[in-house]
Write a structure and sequence with these properties.
The complex is a heterodimer of chains A (101) and B (196). Chain A has 101 residues and is mainly α. Chain A is built from 3 helices and no strands. The model of chain A has no long low-confidence stretch (mean pLDDT 83). With 196 residues, chain B is mainly α. Among the domains of chain B are: 77 residues, Four Helix Bundle (Hemerythrin (Met), subunit A); 51 residues, no CATH class. Chain B is extended. About 6% of the residues of chain B have low confidence. Classes of the chains: A mainly alpha (101), B mainly alpha (196).
Chain lengths: 101, 196
Amino acid sequence: MAVPIDHYVGLAAVVFFIGVVGVIVRRNPLIMLMSIELMFNSANLLFIAFARVWLQNAGHIFAFLVITVAAAEAAIGLAIIVTTFGPERYVDVDDVRALRG
Amino acid sequence: MIEFWILAVILIVSAVWTIAASKPVYSVVALLLNFAALAVLYVTLSAEFLAVIQIIVYSGAILVLFVFVIALLGSGVAPFPMGPNRLPRIWVPGAVVVLVSLGFLVYTVSQAVPAPTRPPNGPVGAANVFGSVGDFGTALFTVQLLPFEVTALILMVAVIGVITLGGDQIRDAAPRGHERKVERAMREAILREGTD
């Protein structure tokens, strides 16, 4: 493996924090969900890079589980968005006040 | 090494494009580019099965779900409305938090002992070498069987949750009047004569 593991850690960290910034800054729930997907993917990249370094495919199994959880999370998140924001309405998470205590 | 840098640039640019795009459809396109580059990166890490799963599940299923929801919400002539950034001052504390966390991470990685890197036990793409379908499946169905079963539970909970959330809409969209009569007649005919 020509590329040292540090490069993968740095790349995954940069992509992860781009996702963090997306969740913090954007108020559109769809783009927030996509930012969460970015974070899932950077974690997956780390799992696979470390699995390659140690030649242990437990990292692959874990990345597989992360993909499954991400699919479930996307399905539920999009269902919440569809039920919360009807068609032809302004899509902005700051307008959601149903859960406010 | 060169392919890593090309893919890294594509990954970072498409990630920034995803969170900065003006319309969610552009974000989906950027995210597709991100996932494709990531799949190529997985192949270079000899995780070929996960590269295929990445393309099928992420690019094929999750992004299509996003596109469907965008099409559902953005019906009509008007473009999909974009939420305003209600917290413009979040840029400064956000940047501080991100830079500090990134600094900690870089410091920790620089202090870490470099791991010994061994070559895989065969060429990428061959059967039963590290990361191949056989290798992955053997591990998934023998040593890691319990996480696999838990995955099934998680997916079932997700399905139940989505049905619970969308239950009202499904009931509202139920056929009524003569449609219901036609449906009942069809069901009775099927019961009477079988599906064939």
